[in-house]
Hints:
By secondary structure, the protein is α/β, with parallel strands linked by helices. The protein contains twelve helices and nine strands. The strands form two sheets. Strands 1, 2, 3, 4, 7, 8 and 9 form a seven-stranded mixed sheet that branches. Helix 2 runs antiparallel to helix 10 (254-290) and helix 6 (179-188) crosses helix 11. The N and C termini lie far apart (77 Å).
Amino acid sequence: MKKRVLIIGAIMCAVMGLTYAADAKKPITLKYAHVGIAGEIQTRYADELAALVKEKTNGEIIIQVFPNSQLGGANEMADGIKSGAIAMGHHDFATLGKYLSDISVFNAPYIYRDGEHALKATNPKTSPTLQKVNEKLIKAAGLRVIGSNYRGARHLSAKTAIYSPADLAGKKIRGTPVKLWMSMIKGMGAIPTPVEISELYTALLSGMVDGQENPITNIYTQKFHEVQKFIMMTGHMQAVLSTFINEKAWQSIGEKNQNIMNDCLEEVALRSLKWTKEQEAPVIQKMKDYGITFIDESSGLKNDEFRKSVNAQVAIDFPDWTDYIKEIQSMK
């Protein structure tokens, strides 16, 4: 009898073990790439998103972050996500423009009122415009925008003082190597020159380019203030980066985890807005102490001329964006 009980107990344990093994899910690991370096808001965003997703999914989803262009520059990274070699990442919306031109509209200059507006317009939950464009992107490239993060307004920096588009005539200004940036910088009056962010410090130092444009916090973190003397507070773009994922990878995690990730993306996006507001003023003071001169409208910057000239050039190069821009600008 005793032996029989032991045998039955052993069988029950074995069955329970098999059941547990069948129920236990192996974590899904998603490779996440971006070009940000240590200390940047976009780097903090990716790291905190990964930590929050792991926590909220109880370890079912592990996001493995590869910063600092480890998996390639912006274009290589986007191609890697499209192919599925990389699961997800973040960069400017315009980086995806080579697959679907319309997606770049979310990086259009002079389109957002502020950071809050930029995040609302680039949140798939709250933006009907993004929802429409996202469906086109999924069909065209197998990519889906699932969120965004904010890094502040983008401003122009140069070795010489710039007050209007006329001052940029003949000057080479670096742009993110995508069509929209080339259009914008041409509209500013300069010669658009594509340079990857990882090569920009050297390009500025050597004189390959005369200036560049980036958010205040990024200018400081990347140490561009060491090789520039003037920062023009053009605020020509709200620097909002798309977080995008390979559609097959997105479907592989299931609806429950998709919903959790959506909530995490929204939460960390709002954190990025807070971080930017907290960091900009101290960073501006540090650069002033270093010897940087800031030029704004009170000191002669003719930003109305930049706005008019840039918008005219974008309208020429992207005539199909008119309705999208109206929709985005009308968002409350």
